[in-house]
Amino acid sequence: DSLVTNFAFQWLNVGRMDNIHPDPALYPNFDLNLRKGYREEMRLFLDSVLRSDRSVLDLLRSDTTFLNERVARQYGISNVSGDQFRPVKLTNPNRHGLFGKGAILMATSYGNRTSPVLRGSWVLEAISGTPPTAPPLGVEQFPETEAGKNVLTVRERLEMHRQAASCNSCHGVIDPMGLALENFDAVGQFRTVDRQAANQPIDAGTVLPSGLAINGPVELREYLAGNPARFAQAFTEKLMMYAVNRELEYFDMPQVRAVVRGAAKDQYTLSSIVRGIARSDAFMKQGAAGAHQPAGTK
Questions:
Q1: Closest to 281 in 3D by CA, of 298, 295, 266
Q2: Calpha distance 131→120 (Å, rounded)
Q3: What separation in angstroms does the CA of 254 have from each of 30, 195, 237, 261?
Q4: pTM of the full structure
Q5: Which residue has better confidence, 134 or 123?
Q6: What whole-number distance in Å separates Cα of residue 109 and Cα of residue 9?
């Protein structure tokens, strides 16, 4: 239980969802029951993957989640009645894995709109293990729609933001990941038009820094799951940090990579990663606080 509600919730920054207060004028159907439902769905989903010792890659690609009537209705799923949560096989591939979870989609939004920047940063940090650099001091703020002017989509405002070279250097890496999730609104509902921008069609197409063109959450998930070692390493880094209760240093990384190589033989099951971490020097030879220097240093 602690592995889910402490480690996994921290790793995925689920708690940020509780700080998001959707604008009732924009999202009149959002209520406290939905917020609680999203959290419970995440808890049960993470528990089902980790406790049953499945591959951690199932966190990205699983077609099963846990719903009650309130959450199912938000997802556009029928035939789920009552307050009790139960496993549901998802027929909409956009909802598979972490990218389709309302808790994640809310936690990476604002109360009045989606945020491809927050979502892209979350993907880079939590899923790819390549966190973006912090924005420089004095960077221009994201342009909100000005009163009396044409309402622009979030994508159009991001494109304006990236016109500054100082912004594009970071946003050119961050934004593509987040734009692929634009079909989900700020409270996790799937959409094909942006009702806040005169019902303009949602464009979830994007080009990754590598030059690969993708469109929507399904193709983003396939791209990331196509490199299982990368996701397994991101997961292992976070779990090792949790295990040794400190930030990892450069001298820890060979051990992380060794754990991932060993876990690959078992398809990256949780137990294979846990065993690897428990046998590592970082875990077995922990010293007092502040004593984590590599051999040969003072």
A1: 295
A2: 10
A3: 46, 49, 11, 11
A4: 0.89
A5: 123
A6: 17
